[in-house]
Amino acid sequence: MLDEFVWGKVSRISPEAPVPVVEVSKESSYPGGAANVARNLVEFTRSVRVLGAIGSDGYGAQLRGLLAEEHIQTDSLVEVAGFPTIVKTRIIARQQQVVRVDRERRTAPSAETLAAILAEVERVLPETDAIIFEDYGKGLIVQALKDAVCELVRGRGIVVTVDPNPGNPLDWSGTTAIKPNRSEAFAAAGVPLGEPADDPLQDVPLLEVGRRLIERWRVSQLLITLSEHGMILFDDGQPPYHTPTRAQEVFDVSGAGDTAISLYTLALVAGATAREAAEVANHASGIVVGKLGTATVSREELVASFPG
Q1: Rounded to 5 degrees, what angle do the CA atoms 257, 173, 105 make?
Q2: What angle do CA 72, 76, 80 make, to 5 degrees?
Q3: Does residue 165 contact residue 187 with C-beta atoms inside 8 Å?
Q4: Looking at the whole model, is its pTM more than 0.90?
Q5: What are 158-205's pLDDT values in tens digits?
Q6: Cβ contact 224:232 at 8 Å
Q7: C-beta separation of 92 from 7 below 8 A
Q8: Closest by alpha carbon to 305, among 247, 250, 252, 224?
Q9: Per-residue model confidence as pLDDT tens digits over 291-303
Q10: Would you list the domain boundaries of the chain?
Q11: Which residues are catalytic?
């Protein structure tokens, strides 16, 4: 999807309705959604490609161009006739988001679209170390797609991670790790969402959610992001591991989950343990929430965030 930002200032209330009037000073656009995961990865490796659906429209062409500028491979994108490229427009005034406008149409993929995407997966597998399923609940990621991809990678030693959407309850067995945020995890586990405990390791409902999801999804690694409380890792056979937030200031949480799943996956591919990967992801997420917009973290910023 395409993330648009309209920046300006508010100096008066509209005479037409009790809403602020934003005087626009600049506009900017970035690859968003799963494409923002790719943006986070390309800071650390040039071998990144996106597989997904876009429309045969101006926004789709703009998204391709922005991705190409950042050296992200776009040859596996599938253009779907009649499908509008998803666009999210955020209007920001004085460092605060005033409103967000979404242009999208949720639709299930056709057999032809699924076949085209799976053909691309199979084509690039020989040069692939990891696959990330980034589910924004827009319709493309269905059980048939997930099952087919997991079957293709079986026995190849490829890391498969998931950023799930509770509104799209799939069987995620056969993947390496899953990373929901706290509210998504509670929704997926069917546990009422309450106030978090100060110490996540003493948060009984949270620990129960982790147990349920490890069992339901049949996955060995579950990383739950906890906003200001950092992250908690459920690593099969190990006690839960909590890493507190590394954020110094929080300006904008847009894309923090994208940073977490991308850096966690990259660390696993590089040979890190699950706990080491969680620390890397947590440090990176702590950096991006201190930036406005759909931000990424650089190699230098990440290294500097670790002591010594």
Answers
A1: 50
A2: 120
A3: no
A4: no
A5: 999 999 998 999 999 999 999 999 999 999 999 999 899 999 999 999
A6: yes
A7: yes
A8: 247
A9: 655 567 877 788 7
A10: 36-82+106-304
A11: 258
